[in-house]
Amino acid sequence: MHSYLSRTIFGIAFLAALNSAGASADAFTDFNNPITFVAQQRIVYAAIAANESEREHGLMFRQTLAENQGMLFVYPDQTQRAVWMKNTLLALDVVFLTGDGRIAGLLKNLQPCPRDPCRIYDSRVAARYILELPAGFIEKHAIQVGQTVALP
Q1: N- or C-end of the chain: fewer Cβ atoms within 10 A?
Q2: The CATH number of domain 30-150, selected from 2.60.120.1140, 2.40.10.350, 1.10.10.10, 2.60.40.10
Q3: What residues does 102 pair with on adjacent strands?
Q4: pTM
């Protein structure tokens, strides 16, 4: 009981801190950065998660995501990356991108993880960016490793 209460209080404090941060809270709802899958000439509009706090929160607790929306996680370096679906309510496709916008890896239809332990999905390749999209996007638009993406 004490552990549950502590986690609940921490969660409320975390969300309150995000809400009072102004610009940080807006990053989670501003899907206004166009990203183009060059081969398909398909544009998606992404929110940007550019700092540690934004990357940790990602798409957690989000209940909807339009077919042409996603979140771009920006890192300062290119190395192997990992994602998990903790507190993510939506199934997602994940695209791992190199610094020059080349698709280096794909993960399809990652399912939500409502409680621990949650599986960690490894990129298995070096990536500088992670793009999370609604599940089914990769299949529907024939996205493939080696293709390029024009980033904002």
Answers
A1: N
A2: 2.60.120.1140
A3: 148
A4: 0.80
